[in-house]
Design brief:
The chain is α/β, with parallel strands linked by helices. It has 14 helices and 13 strands. The protein is globular and about 60 Å long.
């Protein structure tokens, strides 16, 4: 197939953890052209994507940019959509995601894959606050109402959260891991930098099979205690668990969060929801991503692949 004959997929947030994974996987498959939307055209990451064959476009991910987004999607067979991290008190995530989807449809995109999450408000009856989950669910609902084929990936908790946002603390020669879940609670985790792309490639490669599907993307079902035991076994560094599941524990280890009370409420609500209701609603196929991508990294494989020793790392949005 000549390059110009390959289907074009536009990737929103192409320098994010999920977006980079999608862009690189589609390019490496040799079956797709990729248009990468990012505001950071001059970064090493953007230049690397361009060197791999991506077409770069600068488009602000902000509300009110409908025409610019439509222009960016023109000529695309497919689109991978995701919303950037939006911290409270900002509340425009749902509107932004809906405007992206509307622009894609206006431009003639035939298949949208959106990175969604569960509707925590509906599942918990409004008792748990996690708008960054619920807003993505509202966007999914809107996309389903549009005249376009659509599919949805639902990523588990990120391993990278522990490297970027809930980083371990030193105590003498030991590492303290303050984790936002109870010590023995097994939850779904994933490496978004390597797992998102294969999931999206599988969907675009089998569009009829996955039309209308919401698909969990999971690398491991694991508890904080198991994560820390594995970390010690792999790195040789002694580590201990401390709870950041309660308000007291969260602010003891991450006092900087106290400056944003709404963020504190959201982080606590997210964790409480996961423990009380399960991260995914009943009936989801929790084996799908590991079945279609056997190379999806477990926590142990993630540690071996990254060589992480407990230091803070940055991966992008």
């Amino acid at each position: 197939m000549q390059p110009e004959q390959k289907p074009l997929v536009t990737v929103v947030g192409a320098l994010s953890k999920q977006g980079r994974s999608v862009a690189r996987t589609l390019l490496q498959s040799g079956r797709y052209r990729v248009r990468a939307l990012t505001r950071r055209l001059d970064t090493p990451e953007a230049r690397s994507l361009a060197a791999d064959g991506a077409e770069l476009r600068s488009v602000p991910l902000a509300i009110g940019q409908g025409q610019a987004l439509t222009d960016a999607f023109v000529g695309s067979h497919g689109a991978f959509l995701m919303t950037p991290p939006i911290a409270p008190p900002q509340t425009h995530e749902a509107q932004l995601g809906m405007e992206m989807a509307d622009a894609a449809v206006e431009a003639g995109v035939q298949h949208i894959v959106f990175s969604a999450l569960e509707n925590v408000d509906a599942i918990s009856g409004g008792t748990k606050l996690a708008p960054h989950f619920t807003d993505k669910a509202r966007i999914e609902e809107h996309i389903r109402s549009l005249p376009v084929r659509s599919s949805f990936v639902m990523l588990a908790f990120f391993y990278t959260n522990l490297l970027e946002y809930y980083t371990p603390r030193m105590r003498g020669d030991d590492l303290i891991f303050p984790i936002y879940l109870p010590q023995d609670f097994r939850a779904p985790f994933v490496d978004p930098t390597s797992a998102t792309g294969p999931a999206v490639l599988e969907i675009f490669s089998n569009p009829d099979k996955y039309a209308g599907e919401s698909l969990p993307v999971i690398g491991d079902m694991i508890s904080p205690a198991e994560m820390i035991d594995t970390f010690t076994r792999i790195t040789g560094r002694k580590a201990v668990y401390r709870s950041a599941f309660t308000r007291e524990g969260l602010l003891r280890y991450f006092p900087e969060f106290a400056a944003n009370e709404l963020l504190v409420q959201e982080l606590l609500g997210m964790a409480e929801y996961a423990v009380e209701y399960g991260y995914y609603r009943e009936g989801r196929d929790l084996e799908w991503s590991r079945r279609t991508n056997p190379q999806s990294l477990t926590w142990e494989q993630f540690l071996r692949t990254t060589g992480w020793q407990g230091e803070p790392r940055t991966f992008g949005a």
